[in-house]
Amino acid sequence: MSNELSAKQRSALQRVIDDPELQPWLFKKVDKTIWFDAFVDQGLFSPELNPKPIETKKNTFHVPSWPITEYLVASSTKIKEENDKKSASKYLTLLKDVTQYAIENNYSNHRTWWQFSKVLRNLPLDTISINDIRCVRYWLEDNFDKYLVGKEVSEWIVELVSNKDEHSRSLALWLLDALFTIGSVEDKYSTNRKEAILQLDSYQAEEFVKKSAIELGNQLGWAAVELFKKKFTEVLEINSNDKWSNVWRNAIAEHKQNSRNDDADDIVLKLFRDSLIGYFQSNRTAESNEKLIAIISSDFQTIKRIGIYVASECFENINKEVIDLVIDRNHFNDKYRHELWHFLNRHFTKLNEAQQTSVIESISGLMVTNDETGAIEDKPTAYKQSNWYAAIKEVSELANANYQKCIQITGVEPDHPDFSSYMSGGVVVNESPLTVSELAVMLEEPMKLVKFLNEYDHVGHFDEPGIEGLVETFGALVSLEDCTVLNNLEHFIDLKPHYLNKIFSSYSQLWSGKSHRAWDRLWPKLIDFTHTLFEQDSFWQTPENTDSSPFIGDKNWVVSSYCRLVESGCEKDERAFDINLSDTVKSSLELLLERVNGRDFDNDSDAVSIAINSPRGRCLEAYLKLALYQCRNVKNDDDERQNIWAEYEPVFSNELNKPATANEYEFITLVVMYVLNFSYLSKKWTSENLDKMFGEVNSLQWLCAVQSYTYVGQLIPEIHKIFKANNFYVAILDNRNLKDTVKARYVEYMCIAHIHKIENLNNDDSVVQLLLKRKNDNELSKMIWFLWSIRNKDNDVTQKLIFDLWPKLVELIGQQTTDKRPLASKLALWAEYIKDLNEQSKLWLCEVAPFVQDDHNGMSFMKQLARMSDTAPIDTADILKATLVNPFYMYDLKPLEQIFKNLIAIGKEGKDAASEIAGVYIKNRDEAVVMLYQGLDKD
Description:
Blueprint: H1 7-18, H2 23-29, H3 34-41, E1 54-57, E2 60-62, H4 68-82, H5 85-104, H6 110-122, H7 135-139, H8 147-163, H9 166-179, E3 182-186, E4 194-198, H10 202-220, H11 222-239, H12 245-248, H13 264-281, H14 286-296, H15 301-313, H16 320-326, H17 337-347, H18 353-364, H19 378-392, H20 397-410, H21 436-442, H22 446-455, H23 467-478, H24 497-512, H25 519-535, H26 537-540, H27 555-569, H28 582-595, H29 607-613, H30 615-632, H31 638-656, H32 658-661, H33 666-673, H34 675-681, H35 683-688, H36 690-694, H37 700-709, H38 717-725, H39 728-734, H40 740-755, H41 767-774, H42 777-789, H43 796-814, H44 822-827, H45 839-848, H46 858-869, H47 873-883, H48 894-905, H49 908-923, H50 927-938
Antiparallel strand pairs: 1-2, 3-4
Helix pairs in contact: 2-4, 4-6, 5-6, 6-8, 8-9, 8-10, 10-13, 11-13, 13-15, 14-15, 14-16, 15-17, 17-19, 19-20, 21-23, 23-24, 24-27, 25-28, 27-30, 28-30, 29-30, 29-33, 30-31, 30-34, 33-37, 40-42, 45-47, 46-47, 46-48, 47-49, 48-49, 48-50, 49-50
């Protein structure tokens, strides 16, 4: 075969030399290597012809392709097929020369590098040296696109690994080193921090790791593992986040608690982890165990965790020395909890007796001591031990016995014992510029963290990181089990309110979620911090949120969150704060009451909603709960309780006068709602001030008080007396500003007054007589409904009231002239109170029967008639006939079937009544009922 161009080929070459626009056409057409020297001779491979990126407009670039590279790719396949080493050498020289020129002239063309990477894959391997592929590192550094070259290189690596010869291995390792080049950039939020980045596209790297990492460890062995360990160490050193790995990487395994997957530390962690698994799966030797021991002995916490994880995954391949190291006493701490917990959970029964004993002794030796006294704290210690015993309690009787002792001490079982830091599920609403672990790293210099948090004010939109997300992430930092923020509280006094709010609200959430914390150590720090905070004028001078502000806390949120936390600390709970802290809390709350104004109340306001949600209302509730907490803790010592009351009474009395002096209505609303609690604190003060609490009828104060009284949950005789004497019931029912739900509650109170025998229906001035006289269908319906709703309480007084009221209501209904009478339908519900029909009760039921469906009570009425038909079928039939004056659709025929059966069973009289009833349904063409009757009549 000739190595020179034919006359025709030379002619074609000359034409494209004369007319360069034809060159792309030629480069696509030819693929033989004989063209290479001709192109070189014509200068078509001159490195300066490799196009530079062109700036089309500011910061926008176009990267042209170099057409001749298409020929290079096509012809390189021929080199591979023919094993043409001479041509391969020329091609390699060209690739290096073009790349070197670009380096020297400080530019790059990713399109050219992509084609070059294809050429490399096509050349015979024995012609390629490490020196020949050094240019790949530059190709992978392109500013405009790394994906295309990365794709070719990663695919080539897979091919090289599959060859299994030493030269292919060395090329693959070098390319892996280049592919996973680690860079660093300045952290955009902290000038003193660096952030590790991958040169390779994150998605591409993630996919490569997922598909190939285990095989790399399997085929390339320890050399690959060592390379990836070095890469991971580099990432950890740049990010300085190794000590927080149990926060940014909750589990070395893949787990939903791992909140991110595409950062350099996560990707390289998986690369190292999976390659180590691949290596260990194919190497069950003393040497491989020694290498794993070295990994588990690493100074890096995260590398040690990876070693423990791999020991668990490859348990059948590890020896006694590895197991002994994994279960070393020093590993029983939160840093390694997830990996060691699952190692024990999966393999405890496979450990020898000495190793099992060592594990239980290590867990039993875990202690939590008081920072100041050094004394062992029982509950925190028991909780810490219970987390570890949970891993093996199902397979060890001794561990289970110890576990049960621990939860008897703590009163709770750990929810997620395998995690030292667990975030509850939920949809992430706001993106944060930093992760929890990044904030934790910054916390190593608290004042710099405070400065960063206070200065950050970017409002993110459409999944963009912003201030709202950062506030939420700070809340997650507060919630960490190691109480990192709590231990640095003194540095946070100058934080902006939205972060201060997260401190209190996060601990409130931990409380309500029954999360275990060292509450006895937490409370003094929080309470002292808060008292100092509220004494600072700078806190009160911070601006309040506006409608256009981001949804983050202001000083009012801080007040509310703190007060909620105080209320939690006053509960009957072993997590309550020490009673000796009450004076500081009381002083802080009084500081708040001096500073925080009440919300605006209007005549039509939902007073209770405003009171319990306003900052001042929350403060007043916390103040009341604190007084109750102190009084509960003096047992039955009345004198001491009165002394406590004397400390609180001036504030409460002052608040009672606020509507008149300061136009503040939170306390009026709350004092009535908690009137029973105030009576516990001081019955005398409460009784003397009942009139004052309600004020003038129809005043704003009165409207607030009567709304809050509906939340008390029971009728208070003294208040009923005030209401009746001042004609409050009528005022409430007539007031247009009060909701129907409020009025309905007072109708219930009026009924309860009769049930409790405070009122007598025979008296003309009884409150239920008042309802009858008003003849208001809505009020009477509420009365009927309430008395029906308590039917299962088997109260003789209620039943007597029902039967006393029934004829009066029937009379009222009889006076109505409308076609529909919902009140009669509602009254039909009382049929449930009739155990045995008699002449009087039959008459009552016949009066309401034609209207039972007017308020959709027809089916319930039919069920009661069916019940009555068991003992009085004929009387029941008469009542049923009365309902048929206005027939209605019955979706359930069982009651009618029962009535028909009972009628047919008594003979001719019953059959005649049944036939008459059926006749009505025949006239109305109700085929279902007719068929039911006909079927029963045949039987």
